[in-house]
From TrEMBL:
A Pfam family recorded for this sequence: 4HBT_3
Annotated ranges, domain Acyl-CoA thioesterase-like N-terminal HotDog: 34-114
Ranges where the Acyl-CoA thioesterase-like C-terminal domain occurs: 158-253
UniProt-listed InterPro entries: ACOT8-like_C, Acyl-CoA_hotdog, HotDog_dom_sf, TesB_ACOT8-like_N
Protein name according to UniProt: Thioesterase-like superfamily protein
UniProt region (Disordered), positions on chain: 1-20
Length: 263
């Protein structure tokens, strides 16, 4: 079973209030869209979701698959109206490049580039592939005793393995928009932002904030849960870079990478 761009995740009875009101590129955040860093800022992952929504809405028809999305979060995003604009930088027969800008009060606050590739070709074997980690299902992992606020999503962590592997499941518990189900691409684009806190968390607190996130998808996720498997992490002179493999309940779907600075 493979998800397509326009498929929507199954509705949930425990779903919370939508994060935004609005449509067609203009969105108003509700109070719970706030960042964990400040109640006066919008969480960056949600802006990535809005940008993915606009790319889908206007540019991802005709069998094009969003294979890569790089989002630069170069300014704090104030809690207020957000405008999303898109432009096509390349409209080839097999490759489409879409640039997306998020602005607040006319000031650009984030920029994304989406590479969409024409899907449908037959896969051919390659000489090497990694041994794929098969994670326990989210339902088999106990939720944390102390739950985070609903608007920060739900995380279920596995105990680190003997070889140092860390793995955690994440899902949103509120929809992005009122009356519109989150699509697989939106789910993945929002979840990818968690690569930084997942890899940069200290013993008792998170002291790094990510400046970007790059998402690679060989296929779109099925379902609400996105799994994070640590692959790489390095810090030098206050700059942290990290990479996670991404999973859904069927297996690997791609990777997410991030660069972060001390908060």
């Amino acid at each position: 079973m493979t998800a397509t761009v326009r498929e929507v995740a199954e509705p949930r009875s425990d779903i919370g209030e939508p994060f935004f009101d609005g449509a067609d590129g203009h969105y108003e955040p509700r109070p719970h869209a706030r960042s964990p860093w400040s109640e006066n800022l919008v969480h960056g992952r949600l802006v990535s979701g809005l940008m993915a929504h606009e790319v889908e809405r206007t540019h991802l028809a005709d069998g094009f698959h969003p294979a890569r999305m790089t989002t630069d979060l170069f300014r704090p995003i104030p809690m207020g109206p957000i405008d999303i604009t898109t432009s096509v930088r390349r409209a080839g027969r097999r490759v489409r490049i879409v640039e997306v800008q998020a602005s607040a009060d006319g000031v650009p606050v984030a920029l994304a580039s989406v590479q969409a590739l024409l899907s449908g070709a037959e896969s051919t074997p390659v000489t090497w592939a990694p041994v794929e980690y098969r994670a326990p299902t989210p339902e088999s992992v106990a939720p944390p005793v102390k739950q985070a606020p609903r608007h920060f999503g739900e995380v279920r962590r596995l105990e680190p393995s003997g070889d140092g592997r860390k793995f955690a499941w994440f899902r949103e518990t509120c929809p992005l928009l009122d009356g519109v189900g989150d699509t697989p691409f939106q789910i993945a684009s929002m979840a990818a932002d968690w690569v930084s806190p997942f890899t940069n968390m200290g013993a008792t607190s998170l002291n790094f904030i990510n400046a970007d996130v790059t998402l690679y998808l060989s296929r779109l996720p099925i379902g609400k849960w996105i799994g994070f498997e640590n692959l790489d992490h390095k810090i030098d002179n206050g700059v942290a870079v990290s990479v996670c493999a991404l999973h859904d309940e069927q297996g690997r779907i791609g990777t997410a990478a991030s660069a972060a600075l001390p908060y």
